[in-house]
Fold non-specific serine/threonine protein kinase.
Amino acid sequence: MVCVGGKYQLLGKLGSGGTSSVYLAVDNVLHKKWAVKETSNENLDSDKKALILQSLRAEVEVLNHCNHPSIPRIVDFFEENGRAYAVRDYVEGSSLKTIIVQSGVIAPSQVCALGIQLCELLQYLHSLNPAVVYCDLKPSNVMISNDSSVHLIDFGSALELKGEDGVLVQPSRFKQDARFATYGFAAPELFEQGAKIGIFTDVYALGATLFYALTGTCYCESSNCSDSSLSFNDSDFSSFSSNKTLDFKDSNKSHPLTNFDLSCDDCDSGVRYVLMRALAHNPKERYEDCAEFSQALKDCLEDLEFGEKVESNMGESGLVLRNKRRARGAQTRKKYDASRSSHALSRLRVESGNQNIGKRHKKNGVKNGVKNGKKNIFKIVCCALMAFIGCIVFAFACKSVITNASRAKVSELRSYVKSGNIPTKNKNASNITSSVQEYKKYMSKAAKSTDSKQIVEYVNKAMSLQVKLFNANVQPISIQPALRLLVNQIEDFRWSASEREDFTSFVNKYKSDLKKSEDWYELCLSVGKAYWYYGVKDKEESSSANRKERIEQSAKWFEEALKGVKAKDYESALMYSTLGKGYLDLTNYSQAKPKPKVREYAGKLRAFVENAKKNENEIVKIDASEIVFESLNSWSAQFKADGVNQDIVEKIFDDALDLARSLKSQNKNVDNRVKSIMSQADPLIDSIENAFDNSGA
C-alpha cells in the first residue's frame, strides 16, 4: 500500500473526477481514518498544473474558514512527487446517490426534511465573510453519516464571493473547467461565458438534487440539455468532458418540469411547486436565498404532514380537511407568485370565478329545496344538527392531531436524515432523542475545538450521555469519546504531561463503562502507542532522553491490550510489550535478578526494526532507529557475553542506520533526531567492534 506525507497510508479509492482522486487513509500509529484528496499533474502543461494546484489550495483555504459540524476539517496539506494532497475528516456513511440507487426514491416529506437541512448548511456558507458558494451540490456530494447526520464533501468547486454585489463574474473558460461543475445538477449560469455566479447558483443545484431524490432522475431544462446549445467546444473542456454526461444511468437527457412523474397529489401541488421555482432558468425568478427556500419547504412539509395525520385519524372525513389543506396551500403559494406571468395570474382568477359561480348555483339549489315542503325542512334541520355535532367531534380531533404533529414534526419528519428510528411518542422516547442529539453535538464540538480544556469538557459530557443511553438499552458503549480526546491531544505529535493527566482522569472516571465496549482493548493498544511515541514533559520535544519513562507508562496499556485485542493487532501488541519489557530489564541490568535474557532481547530488537521498515510513519521509523542505537551503545558487551553473534549485531546496526537515512522529513523535530543518529553512527560502530574484540573483552 502507498503511503504519503510520511504517515498517511492509502487504503483504497473513495472516488475520483477530473484530475483528482479521494482515498481512504489511516494513521499507522493510531488507526485514525482520514480522506486524502490527491491531485495529479501528469500530462498537463505548466499553466494547467499551476491552476489545478491553485484550485486545491483555494479549497483548503475555503475549508479553513469554515467551522461547522457538517463540513469536514482540513488537517494537512502538502506536495509530494509532483502531486498535491489535502487531508480532511473522513465521513463514514453513504451518499444520497448511493441511498437512492440502492433503496429507491424517498417520500416527499423526507425530501422536504432533507432539503431544509441542506438549506441551513448552505445558508451557513452564504453567511460567511466573504460568502462561499458551493457550486457543485449533487447527490454524490451529500453524505448521510452512520450517525444519520448530513454532511457536504468535496469543496473543489467552491468559490468565495468577494465582490460588493455578492456575485462573481466567470473569469474564463478554463477556470470554469477547473471547478468541474456537474452537468445535470449545476445551474445554467455555470456553463455560460461571462455569466454571474451567486447564492442563486446553489439554490438551483439544491432544487436539482431534491428533484433527483424525489424521482430518481436528473433534471435539466431541454434548452440546456442538447449538445448544440452548449456554448463551448469539447476540446476546450477536456477534463470537464468526463462529467458532461449525466451522473446516473437512469437519467433522462431532457426532463422539463412539466414531466414530474409523481403519483402523489401532494407532491404535484406542493413539492412540485417549490422545486419549480428553485429550478427557474432565470436566477431572478428563483428563491432569493436558502432561507426563503427553506421556508417554502417548511410550509410544504407542514401541509404534507398535517394532511397525513388527519387522513390517518379521521378516515373518509379527512378528505374534507384535505381539500381545505390544499386551499390553504394555494393561498400560501400566492405570495411566491410575484415573478410569474400575468397570463398565469389571470388564469387563476378565471378558475376562481368559475368556482364562485358553482357555489352560487349550489346555494340557489338549497333555497329551492326549502320551498318543497315541511318534509324537506325537517331533513335540513336534522342534517344541520348532525353537522353541528360532527364539527364538535372534528374540532377536538383536529386539536389533538395538530398538537401532536407540532410536537413531533421536526424529529419525526427529519428521521430520514437525523437520529434514525428513535420514536418520539412519549416522554421517555423524547428524552432519549434529546440525549442522542446532545451526544452528537458534544462530539462534534470536541472534533472542531482547538481549546484543550473545552475538548475535555465536551468529551466528558458526551461520555456521560452515552452511559445514560447505554443504561436505557438504546445503544452500546463506544470508545469514541476517549479516542476523540486522545487524537486531539496528539495531533501535534506531542503528548504533554498535562494532556496525559486530563486523559488519565477521563479514563479512570469512565473505566468501568469503557471496558464494556468491544473496542476497549483496541483503545488500550492505541494509548500504549501514544505513550511510546509521543509522551513528553511539558514544553519539551519527544526524544530518547525520556524513553524509559515513556516505555514504563506504555507497558501497562500493552499488557491490558493483550488480554483481548483482536487477532489482527495481537502480534503488534505482543511486539511492543515484549520489547518494552526487555528494554526496561536491561536498563536495570546490574540490579536485575535473574539477569535479563539478552539474546531474546536482541531478537525482539531485530524484529522491531523489520516492522518499522514496513511502516511508513516517520515517527515509528526514527524511534526504531533511536532505540536500536541506544541499546547497542549501552549493551553491546552484554550481547557478546550472552552469545549474540557480532554479525547479527552489526546487521541490526546497519538496518537502523538505513532506516534513519531513508527519512526526508519536513518535521523539524524528526529532522533533528535523524541528524543525531547520523552523528552517532561512526562512534557506535567503533564501540561495537571494541566490545566484540577479544583484547577488549
Notes: The chain has a mean pLDDT of 73. DSSP finds 22 helices and 13 strands in the chain. The two ends are 46 Å apart (CA to CA). Residues 461-696 form one domain.
